Amino acid sequence: MVQLHDLKFTPFISESEINAGIEKVAAQINADFEGETPVFLGILNGAFLFAAELIKKFKGDCEVHFVRLSSYEGTGTTGKVESLMGLTESLKGRQVIIIEDIVDTGNTIESIDKILKREEVESYKIATLFYKPAAYHKSLHIDYIGLEIPNDFIVGYGLDYNGLGRNLTQVYKLKNTKMTNLVLFGPPGAGKGTQAT
Ligand code: 5GP
Ligand code: MG
Ligand code: MG
């Protein structure tokens, strides 16, 4: 068990399960991008560990960029994605692979979709380490999924609770999820302040 701020979390996904998810995604990307030079676009902060592991497993040439989105408050989503920072290179005509920590409601990837269309990329794919099918309510196809998980709030392996927990090597979930759900997934703005996702 770990305690972060006021909340307790219990072990949920082991390091070996995480690694297996990353291996699976890497194998699919290597097959799909053989002979190509894609641009990996990591979404900070949450995707930094996944991006590092995934990119190390890519067998060809690639570029790597990181951008930041601000969209999430505490443990409840606002449904609002503010901005994308740090995109200094033109992506026009490139094959882009977005690297996300987790796809929850899908608001973030929908926002990125709009931005990449504006950038006139040749194509883009979405790679996410975790995916919550029960929470996802968008129609965008998610190309590469490490692990599907239930609709629990998780921390670890890059994912935080109000800034803490990103360094945990395995993934934990909230203890007593049902009770806390009532509070934590309340109305927009009920969280603890905007932060990088
Ligand atoms: P979206 O709802 O837009 O798909 O997800 C937005 C962002 O919220 C994710 O990239 C991630 O940073 C954060 N998020 C969603 N679900 C969780 C979760 O269970 N735990 C943590 N720590 N962050 C989450
Ligand atoms: Mg976060
Ligand atoms: Mg994210």
UniProtKB/TrEMBL annotation:
Domain Phosphoribosyltransferase: residue ranges: 17-161
One record GO biological process: purine ribonucleoside salvage
Keywords noted in UniProt: ATP-binding, Cytoplasm, Kinase, Magnesium, Metal-binding, Nucleotide biosynthesis, Nucleotide-binding, Transferase
GO CC terms of this entry: cytoplasm
Enzyme class: transferase
Compartment(s) of residence: Cytoplasm
Keyword Cytoplasm: yes
EC number: 2.7.4.3
Biological or metabolic pathway of the protein: Purine metabolism; AMP biosynthesis via salvage pathway; AMP from ADP: step 1/1
Main subcellular location: cytoplasm
Catalytic activity: AMP + ATP = 2 ADP
GO MF annotations, alphabetized: AMP kinase activity; ATP binding; hypoxanthine phosphoribosyltransferase activity; metal ion binding
Record: residues binding ATP: G189, A190, G191, K192, G193, T194
UniProt family annotation: Belongs to the adenylate kinase family.
Role this protein plays: Catalyzes the reversible transfer of the terminal phosphate group between ATP and AMP. Plays an important role in cellular energy homeostasis and in adenine nucleotide metabolism.
Record text on subunit structure and interactions: Monomer.
Domain note: Consists of three domains, a large central CORE domain and two small peripheral domains, NMPbind and LID, which undergo movements during catalysis. The LID domain closes over the site of phosphoryl transfer upon ATP binding. Assembling and dissambling the active center during each catalytic cycle provides an effective means to prevent ATP hydrolysis.
The protein's name: Adenylate kinase
Originating species: Salinimicrobium sediminis
Shown residues within the full chain: 1 to 197 of 369
